[in-house]
Amino acid sequence: MYTVSPEVTGKFHTDYLYLTSIFVLVGLLRYIQIAVVDKKSGNPTKIILKDHFTQFVVLAWLIAFILIIYVF
User: Fold this and answer.
1) Considering Cα of 20, then 8, then 66, then 70, what sign does the dihedral take?
2) Three-state SS at 54
3) pLDDT tens sequence across 31-62
């Protein structure tokens, strides 16, 4: 909802911020996989600091967000 609100699209002057939602969804699904399948639920901060895939998703989200704001 944040990425498609008129205030946010007006502030960043782009209608493409909704594309960053994909990374958020993938990150949430990875956390659910770690918590349910691997049964390693606990402190989300520790999981983010140890899981390389989650770190990659966060970095990819940040790069996509910056590219959408400043390039497109």
Assistant:
1) positive
2) helix
3) 999 999 998 888 889 988 999 999 999 999 99
Q: How far apart are CA 3 and CA 9, in angstroms?
A: 7
Q: CB of 64 within 8 A of CB of 19?
A: yes
d(CA 62, CA 25) in angstroms, rounded, equals 14
Average pLDDT over every residue of 7-13: 95
Nearest to 68 by CA among 5, 21, 1, 6: 21
Cα 1 to Cα 29, 32, 47, 50, 69: the distances in Å are 18, 21, 26, 29, 17
